[in-house]
Amino acid sequence: MARTAKHLLDELTRRGPHQVLRGDLALVGLPGVVFTPAAGLGLPAIAFGHGWLQPTSRYRGLFRHLASWGVVVAAPGTHVGPLGSARLLAADLRTALDVCVGVRLGEGAISVDQDRLGLAGHSTGAGAAVLAAADDSRVKAVATLAPAQTKPFATDAARQCQMPSLHVVGGNDLVAPPRSHGELIAQSWGGPTQLRVLPKASHLGFAEGRHWSGLLVHGKAEHATHRISRALLTAFFLVHLTGEKKYLPLLEESTKTAPVTYETVPTLAG
């Protein structure tokens, strides 16, 4: 029987079948963390860009969730200060992908397929992911959470991106309002793209736990925002990096909790 988007959403909000390992990118010269399934060869991998002032620890739940579904996640912990460079973070995201492909993880029990690479990020880290994607032909899919415009402009870089993309924005985002940030990036995208709005999500709703930056940046951790965004990103990367078409209905159908508000081409796997 065909699974509906609601059923798939419920399935992907739960932890996946894989045990998860956590490692330190600093061991290979790049501050940051890496989360992997306990074992597996030829796995998909993404590099994730943190938001402005946000440590990678604010996304550990997301990283563990993706890894439990078989996706390796590497997150550089660089440029976390107030003057952090999106351009340099983009370069570090590409380096993180190099590490995933070039280093045997988990004592040699884990390897990444160089043809199954993606990028993701939150806030300015999402903008940095777009910058990185524009300069890296290896990247097969890009997902952003509350993306923020960057310098160089993420909107300009988006025009050079031909891979599928998913942009999840918050309807209550006062830091990077969708109309002037996420929507513009999606509308500028050169390839298939989809924009979804979480009506009640704030800018920091995608981050986890508490952090002093909450005094400067609007919003706070939101369980419902985590639940929906994790499921959407999991479906997106499983479809576009592994060809798992089982989860296509969740990407194709608009849902009450995450309606599609802009789309150029249906996000179908090749």
What this model shows, in words?
- The protein has 270 residues and is an alpha/beta fold.
- Helix content is 30%, strand content 23%.
- The protein has a 9-stranded mixed β-sheet, with helices on both faces.
- Strand 7, helix 6 and strand 8 form a beta-alpha-beta unit.
- Helix 1 crosses helix 7 and helix 3 packs across helix 4.
- The longest helix is centred in the last third of the chain and has 20 residues.
- The relative contact order is 0.16.
In short:
The protein has 270 residues and is α/β, with parallel strands linked by helices.
Set down the secondary structure blueprint.
Elements: H1 5-12, E1 20-24, E2 32-37, E3 40-49, H2 60-68, E4 72-76, H3 86-102, E5 110-122, H4 124-134, E6 139-145, H5 154-158, E7 165-170, H6 182-188, E8 193-198, H7 223-242, H8 248-252, E9 260-263
Parallel strand pairs: 3-4, 3-5, 5-6, 6-7, 7-8
Antiparallel strand pairs: 1-2, 2-4, 8-9
Helix pairs in contact: 1-7, 3-4
Please work out how many helical segments DSSP would assign: 8
For the biggest β-sheet, the strand order reads 1-2-4-3-5-6-7-8-9
Instruction: Indicate the low-confidence ranges by residue numbers.
Output: none
Average pLDDT: 92
Structural class category: alpha/beta
Outline = globular
Residues in β-strands, percent: 15-25%
Helix-strand topology string: HEEEHEHEHEHEHEHHE
For the CA atoms, what is the radius of gyration? 16 Å
Describe the main β-sheet briefly. 9 strands, mixed
Helicity, in percent? Answer: 25-40%
Distance between the termini: 23 Å
How many E-type strands?
Answer: 9
